[in-house]
Amino acid sequence: MKRYTFYLCLALLVSCGKTSETEKYQRERNNIVDVSGRISDIKVDLMIGMSSLYTIDSFLVVQEWSPAGEKGIHIFNKNSFNQITSTGIIGKGPREITRQGKIGINYKTGVLWVNDHGKRVMWKFPLDSILTNPNFMPTENIDIPLKFFIEQYGFVNDSIAIGKAVRVISTSSFNNKMSKFNLIKNSTTSFGYEHPDVTETQSLFTFALSVKDSLYINGYSACDLMTICDLNGNLKYNIYGPDWNTNKQEWRDYYTSIGILNNHIIASFVGQDRFYYDKNSRLQTNWPTKFMVFDLEGNYEATLETGCPFIAFCVDEDNNRIIVYFDGRENPLAYFNFKIN
Questions:
Q1: What is the pLDDT of residue 48?
Q2: Strands ordered across the beta sheet of 160-170
Q3: How far apart are CA 38 and CA 61, in angstroms?
């Protein structure tokens, strides 16, 4: 009986050890670093509205959400920020983009896949073709299914991507599912770990992939949770913030975008009510002003406070910097060098 009790206790200790390694609760994140004085404007001649940002090779890709001009995707040299070209003609004609969605980049093949939610296709934009032909228009596309389609993703090889998919429940509701996309078969299937306590209303998340580090990350927007998994979809770490499992989560926003920069996870983070009323009693969105920084095991390192709301960002590993599209600055595009002290 004593021997049985000993082995039972030992099994419980081992089990608890595994749980503590996987489940990380961070009740305090108080290493605040003010980076507002480090921000450098990127001055461009082009008037650019709210945009998503990407980097590939030596290029910065700026994709406007609602393009005012003829084209919606702008390519810059990411070192000098000189504009090189623009692409993606906006319109309803053949080979034009009606309503832009996110861009999925295959870094190995140098291809930008641009979701067009108006025509329900993914357009193929080879980077070489964009750079050599200022009048390039795509000739290849893949149909986007109506009910379940990949939206934010990265390629793990030439034909397989993983990322965030949208599952349409009804004409007025949807949720997010982690998914795998087969480019050759044009098929999307559910994939990977799902936290058992995340409800349907909390399922919206942002996604980042690092093939080099053999991991992907989901940061949830409606609950204070980040998950880190391996490329097979197995859980490595659940990272819980101070609001996890509290009633504060009902009204607040958390993660809005994630990048991986030289062995650090960079996550834009709100941590406040998702909406507020301005002085004219107009309802406004609370955009993030700060970045949470973690190591690749999800251990908290610092909070980088920019002092200004921003819409989107991307990381530039070659130059060790973060490029940001700010809201409310005279020059919305800017960058700062990354350091946490």
A1: 92
A2: 141-143, 121-126, 111-116, 100-106, 148-155, 160-170, 173-182, 187-190
A3: 22
